[in-house]
Write a structure and sequence with these properties.
The chain has 16 helices and 13 strands. It has 395 residues and is an alpha+beta fold. Strand 2 and strand 3 form a beta hairpin. The mean pLDDT is 93. It comes from Amycolatopsis mediterranei (strain S699) (Nocardia mediterranei).
Length: 395
């Protein structure tokens, strides 16, 4: 599991002293899947070493884990109670279903909302935008009136999940063993056209929120982040822990709408799955742990879960905690709750990681000064090559 999930494993071990728990953390980022694939192949060859349960940051890991040559993931149907499984949203269950069989449960949802620095917006007398066009217009205004402040960023390995997924750009539409990828679709090009002036004027820099450079430029008590489209876990992981934005400044607004298009759709960044091993000799305990981790574990205060629980009854309790959280400038929960039902279902899980493709094909070139509009075609081509290398037919 990743470091963020370590507290839940430790808490389970403490609450269940009769269970011998061997907890191992690993790199779960977009490049970590290759390491995990290598390990699973080694365990398969030696016939030993498989963990009973895995957590991955990569939502697409269950796809390859369920299929040859890996065949690691166990179907959850007979391991978790059906009345419990029914409490995950349909969109979440779909993320874990491969060829009609459910192989995992999501720990959390990672729906994209618009994060707002209410303190700065009030100080500058700006209204919170409701559409992408209003957001872009405000970005142009900020560049002129308050240079150095930003309304977003596009330098993370998952930035396409924020801007392209939410705007229905068809990059991962799976039909059986084929995948439809069209980075030149109008839903993609219109986003690039919107972003390019903001990248150029500095209000949407091609810099990752997790870099020291970003924190130095835009974080701290004098935060320069006015607005930020991003997932539900940004409040704690980015604004509080990475950027050290003081309390009583940040809140969430609903996902941005494209013009008058309905329904409003948004992207997702994460929503990592818990996956049980079909090789485990402790599946009953593994299932008990996964059930506890996803439906019971809900600490409060500084130890609160970083993300929006995928299990609906736990999400309700978590939202109550967030509504009372003194870190926020205003209650973020209406926006978070609404966005949970607005994740666009038009992106499906694929067996290859797309984050390294985005980083190599797009971010590197943005940093070099190239416009995003000129990079969509090579990005799409690189995605198609990755899909074909993974065994998909591409249309």
């Amino acid at each position: 599991m990743d470091a963020a999930r370590l507290p839940v494993a430790q808490a389970y071990a403490k609450a269940h002293p009769q269970v011998h728990a061997n907890i191992v953390t690993f790199d779960g980022d977009g490049n970590g899947a290759t390491t995990l694939q290598t390990k699973i192949q080694l365990w398969n060859r030696t016939g030993k070493g498989w963990p009973d349960v895995l957590f991955s940051e990569q939502v697409n890991d269950p796809v390859w884990m369920a299929q040859k040559p890996f065949e690691f993931a166990a179907p959850v149907k007979d391991l978790l109670k059906q009345d419990v499984l029914g409490q995950w949203p349909a969109s979440s269950t779909a993320q874990c279903t491969i060829n009609g069989t459910q192989y995992c449960v999501q720990d959390n949802l990672a729906q994209v909302v618009l994060w707002v620095n209410k303190t700065l917006m009030d100080r500058f007398h700006y209204a919170v935008p409701k559409t992408w066009q209003e957001w872009a217009s405000l970005g142009e205004k900020v560049a002129t009136e308050h240079p150095g402040y930003i309304v977003g960023n596009v330098g993370d390995s998952f930035s396409h999940w924020i801007y392209l997924w939410g705007n229905q750009c068809p990059l991962e539409q799976v039909h059986g063993t084929s995948v439809h990828i069209d980075a030149t679709d109008s839903h993609c090009t219109r986003v690039a056209g919107l972003l390019d002036p903001l990248i150029k004027n500095g209000t949407v820099p091609p810099l990752s929120v997790f870099t020291p450079d970003f924190a130095q430029k835009y974080g701290g008590a004098d935060s320069k982040v006015l607005l930020m489209p991003g997932p539900s876990w940004y409040a704690q992981a980015v604004f509080d822990q990475a950027l050290h934005v003081p309390a009583k400044q940040i809140t969430a607004a609903p996902p941005l709408q494209w013009g008058t298009d309905t329904p409003v759709t948004t992207g997702q960044v994460g929503g990592g799955p818990w996956i049980m091993s079909r090789h485990s000799t402790n599946l009953t305990t593994a299932a008990d742990f996964v059930t506890w981790a996803t439906t019971v574990f809900n600490p409060s205060g500084a130890d609160a879960r970083p993300g929006y629980p995928a299990y609906a009854p736990l999400a309700t309790k978590w939202l109550e905690q967030q509504a009372a959280n003194p870190y926020y400038a205003a209650d973020p929960t209406p926006a978070l709750k609404a966005a949970a039902d607005q994740i666009w279902p038009g992106w499906n899980l694929v067996s290859y990681p797309d984050q390294p493709v985005w980083s190599t094909s797009v971010i590197t070139e943005l940093v070099a000064g190239k416009p995003l509009s000129s990079l969509l075609e090579p990005f799409g081509k690189a995605l198609k090559q990755a899909a074909q290398a993974a065994g998909y037919a591409v249309d």
